[in-house]
Amino acid sequence: MSPPAELPPSSGRRTMASLLADRLRQDVLTGSLKPGARLSVRELAERYDAGTIPLREALSRLSTSGFVTAEDQRGFRVAEVSAEEVLDIHKQRTELEGIALRESIRAGSVQWEAELIAAHHRMASIQGHLLASDPEWEHEHIQFHLQLVSGCGSPWLLRFIRMLIEHSLRYRQLGSRALAQATRKRDVAGEHKAILDATLARDADLACALLKAHYRETSRIVVEAISAGAGEKANTPQ
Prior knowledge:
Blueprint: H1 16-30, E1 38-39, H2 41-48, H3 52-65, E2 68-71, E3 75-78, H4 83-107, H5 110-127, H6 135-149, H7 155-174, H8 176-183, H9 188-200, H10 204-227
Antiparallel strand pairs: 1-3, 2-3
């Protein structure tokens, strides 16, 4: 067994259960904990060098967000993955982000525009030399998409969008090899720039259409990867 993973330092206010939930979520997102895997509390206690009580609380929290499933009298498992769920996640993400993007374009301030340009610049500056599965790339990619919709003025809408982004990130990680290969044929940088330009031009119809096409292509690639069993090889070095 590999040595216990280290938890991030506590801020003094966060509970051990919160820290463990974050670490478990990260391991599910990256595929370190594989879809369908049984989550033994005893083994997880060794893995994270933690007590069983906060671990059970952390697992219960993750079960409410869909990353872990609770089975009556049988403990917990990592949530399974499916092509159908990929399509559902991307459909709902497209719908909600479309609403938020339209409202951001209508009401977004000059400060919102400036932060969007900066987010795109940070992402574009590393897009050419990092793989789609690289944590630095994923962070800047997510920040760009969040900034696109951040001017909508609805905390609840943004909360749902963040949840969908997390689940779509899990699938992106599982299909990272296929996405990396597809990137060589697909102009992802051009897609992002086109979305940015339409947004800055305050052309909501075009911006939403480009965003929808962007997500449709990603979901197609990930569905093919999941259907081909690429998710089982999520930990293979790229």
